[in-house]
Amino acid sequence: MTLIKACIFDLDGVLVNTAKYHYLAWKRLAAELGFEFTEQDNEQLKGVSRMASLDILLGIGKLNPDESTKQEMAERKNNWYVESISKMDPSEILPGALEFLNECRSHGLKTALGSASKNAMTILNNTGLTPYFDAIIDGTRTSSAKPDPEVFLLGAEELGFSPAECVVFEDAEAGIEAARRAGMRCVGIGGAETLGKADLLISSLEEMSVDRLLRELVVS
């Protein structure tokens, strides 16, 4: 039997409510470029890196700028986003997240962050979440975006456990796929229509407990 020894958490949409700030920044960029970017369009960007997100947005707008222009656009969007998250506080931690992180640590489970965000440390510090993690792997430490498993494999390596001993918590299809490619079990936070490949589905971390985790995700 393979025991669960560590939990690796995505950030946006799992622990904190930053998705709205990403969406508003992308929507503002699209408006400046002359087209509409809807919440439905934004679903394609979940768990995707900044430049890959920009490529999706530009595809929606049927635009094909040169590389230097794309870099400027990505920087502009990120500046708007950073301005928003710089005002975050602990009130934006999602329901159940703090309680479950505390429970994991009290039961001896190691915890890591596995996020594509290059602004993860700003968010963690502003919300007071930094001390809850034994390892923090973010977009500044990875070269490949999800669904590549790099971010989760680095998390497992830094914690000192095999992929089979780790469980990932994700709200994005690309993140679920990354966890599967890493050889890790995965809890999806959201709907079955996009996260159906997860080993366990919940609507929020309010539904999660260490007891349930160990009971429902045991692998012989």
TrEMBL record:
Keywords: Carbohydrate metabolism, Isomerase, Magnesium, Metal-binding, Phosphoprotein. It catalyses: beta-D-glucose 1-phosphate = beta-D-glucose 6-phosphate. The keyword Metal-binding applies. It comes from the Bacteria. Pfam families: Hydrolase. Signal peptide: none annotated. Its EC number is 5.4.2.6. Its cofactor is Mg(2+). One of its GO terms (molecular function) is beta-phosphoglucomutase activity. InterPro entries: B-phosphoglucomutase_hydrolase, Beta-PGM, Beta-PGM-like, HAD-like_sf, HAD-SF_hydro_IA, HAD_sf, PGP-like_dom2. Belongs to the HAD-like hydrolase superfamily. CbbY/CbbZ/Gph/YieH family. This is Beta-phosphoglucomutase. The gene is pgmB.
